[in-house]
Amino acid sequence: MSKGPQPRVGGGGGGNWRPRIHRAWFVAAVAFVTIIGGAAFNSLPGLLIDPLHDEFDWSRGEIGFAVSIDMALYGLTAPFAAALMDRFGIRKVVVVALSLVATGALLSVWMTASWQLMLYWGLLVGLGTGSMALAFSATVTNRWFVARRGLVTGILTAAGASGQLVFLPLCAWIVDEHGWRPASVTVALAALVVVPFVWLLLRDHPADVGLAPYGGEFTPKPEPTRGAARRTVRVLLDAARTGPFWLLAGSFAICGASTNGLIRTHFVPSAHDHGMQITAAASLLAVIGVFDVVGTIASGWLTDRFESRRLLAVYYGLRGISLLFLPMLLAPTVHPPMIFFIIFYGLDWVATVPPTLALCREHYGEDSAIVFGWVLASHQVGAAVVAFLGGVARDVFGSYDVVWYASGALCAAAALMVLVIRRRGVGGAELAA
């Protein structure tokens, strides 16, 4: 007996009775909307530092510490997210993750102490967003697509930036007009609205509906994978014995420190310190998300043509220089040099991902995806440290200037770190730089 309709290789429609659009594309669309809904919270912390400080008299260091817990758990949960999806299924993991994000955002409306902020924003939201990190898009792409995997990966990666573009101006307007609590409720509702779509429309595997993946042949659904978490830890222990891992992890930690930890968390309050309206600063941050997509695609194209180490050195070096100039660009109004900074920083934001992933593949082969997961964890830990220390520095020095200068110096260090990584030659031998 047939196991159901099995489309031809390439995922085309076939005869008149076949649907013209393969179901994989609907799954990808649901995943896109899910990532946007889950990413809504990422637009919030930077907007609420000043309102929470003003209402509760919490230090910016305390608020930054809550954000740092969220970022650290996001990174540390990510390497295990794929194992959870293999064991329990995509739908169950994503529904629980969205529920955690919504619960954390909603409970914060009634918080009265800073430890509650750390519990709701840090623990609940961090675990939720970490369970929907790159593992979600990678798992959907690998299971449902054989053809067009690169395109789908790019589209789902862009979903995070799209969420920032949608929710940053919206939440900034809500905070400005109605206060921070309605903005937090909005983020919670954005996560909850997506849950029914995930449960009703998302499927764990094409075989669940009797289909082949787009562009591939029909394969039965594999049994739930056991021991994936152990392998994740084993790969970390093996990679930790090699020099390139620490250089990649260290440089990517600086990448996270200078993007998510610094700009995403502290750009809006820093601009507000210089007299800029919160809505204007948030709009600038949203524009970064637009050029983020362009920069990532362009960096992927460059990575196919130039040596990854040198690309990374250029990216980190230029980023460091731009951060050194930022304190001189902050002003009450938006002017052309600031717009140039925003465009440049957007292009450079995650341009580091393609060459970093290429170096992981070069040095770690079939374990490269897991190694990259741990390198991504270091990215979020670096972001967490600066999210916290940036708030402390603002409390101590009365401005963020020292944070911008220190981050610029760290980017210069990252440029040197990636140049030290040795190239792999034929047969896996390492070549001198």
UniProtKB/TrEMBL annotation:
SUPFAM superfamilies: MFS general substrate transporter (SSF103473). It is a multi-pass membrane protein. Residues 26-426 form the Major facilitator superfamily (MFS) profile domain. InterPro entries: MFS, MFS_dom, MFS_trans_sf, Proton-linked_MCT. Its main location: membrane. The chain crosses the membrane at residues 24-43, 63-84, 93-113, 119-139, 151-175, 181-202, 244-263, 275-301, 313-332, 338-359, 371-390, 402-421. It is found in: Cell membrane. Gene3D superfamilies: MFS general substrate transporter like domains. Coiled coil: none annotated. Keywords: Membrane, Transmembrane, Transmembrane helix. PANTHER family: EG:103B4.3 PROTEIN-RELATED, MONOCARBOXYLATE TRANSPORTER. This is MFS transporter. It comes from Streptomyces flavofungini.
